[in-house]
Amino acid sequence: MTYEGYKTFNAKLEDSILTITFNFGSVNLQGLEMISDLNSLAMRLERDHEVKVVIFQSANPEIWVCHYDTNLLKDLSTKAVSRSEVELLDLQKVLDRISKLPQATIAKLEGFARGGGHEFALACDMRFAARGKYKFMQMEVAMGILPCGGGASRMARQTGLGRALEIILSARDFGADEAEAYGTINKALEPDEIDDYVKNLAQRIARFPAESINACKRAVYESIDQPIEEALKAEAYWLYQSTSKTAAIKRFTIADEQGLQHDIDNQRNWDDLVMKVQDIN
Amino acid sequence: MTYEGYKTFNAKLEDSILTITFNFGSVNLQGLEMISDLNSLAMRLERDHEVKVVIFQSANPEIWVCHYDTNLLKDLSTKAVSRSEVELLDLQKVLDRISKLPQATIAKLEGFARGGGHEFALACDMRFAARGKYKFMQMEVAMGILPCGGGASRMARQTGLGRALEIILSARDFGADEAEAYGTINKALEPDEIDDYVKNLAQRIARFPAESINACKRAVYESIDQPIEEALKAEAYWLYQSTSKTAAIKRFTIADEQGLQHDIDNQRNWDDLVMKVQDIN
Amino acid sequence: MTYEGYKTFNAKLEDSILTITFNFGSVNLQGLEMISDLNSLAMRLERDHEVKVVIFQSANPEIWVCHYDTNLLKDLSTKAVSRSEVELLDLQKVLDRISKLPQATIAKLEGFARGGGHEFALACDMRFAARGKYKFMQMEVAMGILPCGGGASRMARQTGLGRALEIILSARDFGADEAEAYGTINKALEPDEIDDYVKNLAQRIARFPAESINACKRAVYESIDQPIEEALKAEAYWLYQSTSKTAAIKRFTIADEQGLQHDIDNQRNWDDLVMKVQDIN
């Protein structure tokens, strides 16, 4: 599959890792062009069994992805809609799609991510941010609305309730260390180490079976949307549903041949063993 | 609207911020008087479209709000009740009301908050605590009961499951730094900085549209009580339901006139921009 | 009740605290023997009203509990199963039972806990880990499956979504400090302090009424599986259902006699008061 013809980013595929680099106008505005591009990208990735990891980064030294185009917001109908009639908004829809991709998705945040830009980051599986360069903000309350690209829904799933409310009600900038402490990002990293950190993580994940990556994602996302009894059933379901029988059995066989089990030396080195077992591919 | 005639606290309204200062007897006991006062306060705030932020603080240098009156607990019926018959307890009811206020609520914790006092803090949107002065504890398990002013229900929504269980099963004091690390409070602050921190935060929020504050709160609280698909719908619902059309469109128009979008200098200063846009009020 | 005859651990009962020490082969393999032992243990503990706290530790200086027996995984049917037909797996079942025990359960982690071993730790109420000795990993994605001993379901209940996904998708070792920062454990402790820390915590909890311990656990676990309205009802239900009337009323009476309420000196010392009130037992 080819990843070409986008207006707001370019895509580079290497060793099952697709790197998306936003580069659109002066500020990487999140408008019709970007939403259209993200929809096209998602449509391809949903059908792609080769790509295992997607990294979202920016060519702009100051901005990762900008907020949602305010011109589109000016035209928004504000007619009240009943609960049963309400439909998802365009930004919600495309970010929901991103969040459900079968690939592992990583937001590599080396500039501002505010409003819809930050909501996009929240729709990725993991977020890493560069100290001194990264800032995030949800400014919607100040503009007379609420974060409605999934931000109001996804924030407390990362941070707990009190910090989610402070972030969304205060409409202020948060830096990388505060973001780490509050839990909106996985880790704050030094600007000169984020590249290697994300690359190593992506390369590690990219060697694992694609079906397992997808099964893990499904089970984890489902787990917090249901009572534990149902979550456990989903976990078992995804085991039976998605396991690549050949891949798993090959791996357990190799593990056995290497005396992985019952051997304390091997138990000390699972971090390496995990990668050795991939050599069967 | 006037906020007068309370026995357990006094209320001061200034610039859309209502500051409630508990001052009742030697320990700010959480008894019939306080619960009655809180119900009256909630009834007014539910109808008040001017107040945007409520700060709860204490005049007592050592105690924020004391635990629930043990004399009321002695009389508690312990007859088993079936699931379908069970009704909310008085403290649960009033704190549920506090938690659903349309205003942003801040607990400014400069003394002890234990038992029902801490459960009250958990029912506020945000919590900030002074190092060296703040302690919290849920002592119910030691008394033969469980935290039943919402504490058992709200703890893991802030901290994750393991830490919630430790807090509730250990019945010990936690200081401000440990509270921050466990996530029961937003931040631990120095005793001489908590005043300014909370004041600045309150003044910032108090300039934003009241309807947006309410919409943000609703969407965030709902988000963790439902699967993501339903949460996203709630988010969209609150956008249509609550947006003050005039307020939002005015703000986006100003933002456009100021070239906020497409301009990197403006993008650098969203922290200030957010406040400039409020000057249209 | 006696706790004897296990193949994979020994059990020592002292002052209402049951200490389980794993000691099975070279690596504490989590195979048929251990699962069988854990089922027997759970069956007894479910009926035991004397034991109030269970500590799980290991006699192996390097391994707490090893991963699930890979030989059992090799035989796993990978036939797809429909959602309605899916049944819980053996490891899921026994860990679900552990997680619902009426006793407070503590994982004292002084060695590796990977795969099913870590999923076992996640099924305990609380987790404390020794710096330098503890490592955890979920390596399933690398083996072609997903964590299906409750790991995919329980991880985000401790850490938030982004960090749960990183843990499960990266299949790498995490040390004690990173585990604390990510929230999979309650606290990282020095190797020479973990013993006392866990002992003190266990002894504290073991003096509280058994029924209250159970009620607290039920209410907290239920709280995150339901909307807040239902969680609050569950909280009230457990108050009526489980309170030992005699225990609670005795305690509140003692508290009153000691002038606990209305007295600032007593309010300063709740940490001790909580224990004094237990002397009535």
UniProtKB/TrEMBL annotation, chains A, B, C:
Belongs to the enoyl-CoA hydratase/isomerase family. The keyword Transferase does not apply. One of its GO terms (molecular function) is isomerase activity. It comes from Shewanella woodyi (strain ATCC 51908 / MS32). InterPro entries: ClpP/crotonase-like_dom_sf (IPR029045), Enoyl-CoA_hyd/isom_CS (IPR018376), Enoyl-CoA_hydra/iso (IPR001753). It holds the Pfam family ECH_1. Keywords: Isomerase. This is Enoyl-CoA hydratase/isomerase. It comes from the Bacteria. GO terms for biological process: fatty acid beta-oxidation.
